C-alpha cells in the first residue's frame, strides 16, 4: 500500500512538470531593485536579456525572444536566471513579430523555463500599463524599485503590483466528479469550476460559495493541491479538491452552459484523450487538468 501511495505521489510530481508558468528559473534578487548602479551595469551587459511585451504577446524574431537591451526607461527587473544572467521586461507597442503567450506554451515554441518566467514579465507589464494614475488622488504615478512599486507624484501614495487569487476546484462525491462547461470553450471540453476569491473570504469559503453559485451543489471539506500563476492578466490559481455534500445540479446559465457528474472511469478516459465521444478535460499545461488527475487517482 505504501508503495502504491509513493507511486501516486511520484506521478503527481511528474504531472506538475507539464504545468505552464510554475517553474520559473528566475531568482528575483529583490535586494538589487533599489541598487541603481547594479541595475545600470546589468542592463548595459551584452549578456542581459530583455523581454518585450505587448498585451499578452511577446516579441520574437527567428524563433527567439528578441533580447538585446536598448536605451530606454521603464524597464522592469525580473531577476537573475540560474547562470546569473539578468532578465528585464518592458512594454512595447503593437508591431510585427508578436507571438501570443498562450501559443508559446501550447505549441512549445520556447524552452519551458523561458515560457515559465514570462508569467512574471507579462503580469508586471500589465500592472504598470493600468496604474499610470494614482487610485487615491488621480495624479500621475511613477515607476520605482525597478518595477515593483509606483509612487504618486502628488499625494505620495505607494502602489504595489497585485495578483488576484482564483480558486479552482475538482469537486467529487464518492467516485463521481463534477465537471462544467462554458459556452466559449472548444467543442467537447469540460473542466473544473473556478472563480475569483472575494475580499474577506477564506479559500474554503470561496470554493463553497463558487460551487453553490454555479451549480447549487454544497461542498464540505476542501484540501489544497497545488497553485499556478496565470498571467491573463495576473492571477494565481489555487487548485484544491472539494468533497460534495449534495449531488443535485442547478446551473447558473450566466456562468455555465452545462454541468454534470462523471464517473472516475469516464474522467480518466477524458484526461487520457480516450473518451468515446471525444470529450476532454483541459490541457495538461493547465492546473485544471492536474487537479482532476490527482483527484481521480486518490480515494
Ligand atoms: Zn496620489
Spell out the helices and strands N to C: HHEEEEEEHHEEEEEEHEEEHH
- Form type: globular
Oligomer: single chain
Ends: how far apart? 13 Å
**Rg on CA atoms, Å:** 22 Å
Mean pLDDT across all residues, rounded? 92
- The SS-based structural class is alpha+beta
Structure description:
The chain has helices at 2-16, 36-44, 101-107, 112-130, 203-215, 264-272, 287-297; strands at 49-54, 57-61, 64-65, 76-80, 86-91, 98-100, 141-144, 149-152, 158-159, 164-173, 176-181, 193-196, 219-230, 235-244, 258-263. The protein is globular, with a radius of gyration of 22 Å. It starts with a helix and ends with a helix. By secondary structure, it is an alpha+beta fold. The mean pLDDT is 92. Strands 1, 2, 3, 4, 5 and 6 form a 6-stranded mixed beta sheet that branches. Strands 10, 11, 12, 13, 14 and 15 form a 6-stranded mixed beta sheet that branches. The structure holds zinc ion.
Question: How are the elements arranged and paired?
Answer:
Blueprint: H1 2-16, H2 36-44, E1 49-54, E2 57-61, E3 64-65, E4 76-80, E5 86-91, E6 98-100, H3 101-107, H4 112-130, E7 141-144, E8 149-152, E9 158-159, E10 164-173, E11 176-181, E12 193-196, H5 203-215, E13 219-230, E14 235-244, E15 258-263, H6 264-272, H7 287-297
Parallel strand pairs: 1-5, 10-14
Antiparallel strand pairs: 1-2, 2-3, 2-6, 4-5, 7-8, 8-9, 10-11, 10-12, 11-15, 13-14
Helix pairs in contact: 1-7, 6-7
The protein binds zinc ion.
The site of zinc ion has 8 residues, from loops.
